[in-house]
Amino acid sequence: MDFIDYYKLLGISRSATTKEIKNAYRKLARKYHPDLNPLDKDANKKFQQINEANEVLSDPEKRRKYDQYGKDWQYSEQFEKEKSSREHFAGNGGERSSGMKTEGDFSDFFESLFGRATRSGRSSQVIYRGQDYTAELHLGLIDAFKTTRQTLTVNGKNIRITIPAGIENGQTIKISGHGGKGANGGPDGDLYITFSVADDPKIKRSGNDLFTKVNLDLYTAILGGEITIDTLTGKVKLKVKPETQNGTKIKLKGKGFPVYKREGQFGDLYITYEVSIPTNLSEKQKALFAELSEIKA
């Protein structure tokens, strides 16, 4: 994998604060988001790299390793263990392998470690699993309501994924074998995708249930009648009972969000009526309301 300077990629200094890293990431993520650049492969690749940079630099421990080891930061633990083992072995009269470097050029060290490391005169190869990658995918509520297929670009390769209906905000799925390449025949890492599902302006989601508010004119609230509302599955007609009060809640069973990986199962839709008081009344309307008021008294 080619070395990427994460600081340069995000346009920040090596002394940047956590807040500066976060702000830089958000600005670039919005600019290169695939939804805004559907036909731009370079933008898609840049978006993946930005996510990778943020994942490393926003984590204090990963950032420390990156600052110390550069492109080989993901192998830092193995490096420290191997270094300690070799020093211990040499201190007990063993033979330290020639060409080993404890300081300076880590690239040379890893080249030696992966191909020419020797111990007691016997050749050995150290096998390392590839680095795991993380990415964030943004969806609208309607997108998450149905099964969709999308193509992601990771390290220049297109990956087609199927997103099951009912995916939740913050949910993470694993795509095996699509992370970084393993070393010396080691397995490739995995790709972890976290989904960010936005609320609809009119419909809120809680688990598999949906919640919405519906305006009800005063006359229908008092006399009853029939209204038509919009749902994620289309228009639905509702019968309104006479004398319906403001804030009345009703439930439409099975009209909520699909249950993740449970075909044919749905949550419920909860509707809250908001009774609207009429304005700009004519003199005749005012007189009728006054008459009603007197009858009530």
Topology overview:
Elements: H1 6-10, H2 18-32, H3 41-57, H4 60-69, H5 76-91, H6 106-115, E1 118-119, E2 122-123, E3 133-139, H7 141-145, E4 148-154, E5 157-163, E6 172-175, E7 191-197, E8 203-206, E9 209-217, H8 218-223, E10 225-231, E11 234-240, E12 249-252, E13 269-276, H9 283-296
Parallel strand pairs: 3-7, 9-13
Antiparallel strand pairs: 1-2, 4-5, 6-7, 8-9, 10-11, 12-13
Summarize the structure.
This protein has helices at residues 6-10, 18-32, 41-57, 60-69, 76-91, 106-115, 141-145, 218-223, 283-296, and strands at residues 118-119, 122-123, 133-139, 148-154, 157-163, 172-175, 191-197, 203-206, 209-217, 225-231, 234-240, 249-252, 269-276. With 297 residues, it is α+β, with helices and mostly antiparallel strands.
Explain how this protein is built.
With 297 residues, this protein is α+β, with helices and mostly antiparallel strands. Among the domains are: 133-197, HSP40/DNAj peptide-binding domain, CATH 2.60.260.20; 203-296, HSP40/DNAj peptide-binding domain, CATH 2.60.260. It is built from nine helices and 13 strands. It has helices at 6-10, 18-32, 41-57, 60-69, 76-91, 106-115, 141-145, 218-223, 283-296; strands at residues 118-119, 122-123, 133-139, 148-154, 157-163, 172-175, 191-197, 203-206, 209-217, 225-231, 234-240, 249-252, 269-276. The strands form five sheets. A four-stranded mixed sheet has the order 8-9-13-12. Mean pLDDT is 81; it is low at 94-123.
By DSSP, the count of extended strands is 13
Estimate what percentage of residues fall within beta strands.
Answer: 25-35%
Quaternary structure classification: single chain
Tally of helical segments:
9
User: Element order, helices and strands?
Assistant: HHHHHHEEEHEEEEEEHEEEEH
Radius of gyration: 30 Å
Spans with pLDDT under 50 lasting ≥5 residues? 94-123
> What is the level-2 CATH architecture name of the domain at 203-296?
Sandwich
How is the CATH topology of the domain at 203-296 named? Answer: HSP40/DNAj peptide-binding domain
CATH homologous superfamily placement of the domain at 203-296: Urease metallochaperone UreE, N-terminal domain
The first-level CATH class of the domain at 203-296 is given as Mainly Beta
From the spread of the alpha carbons, the general shape counts as elongated
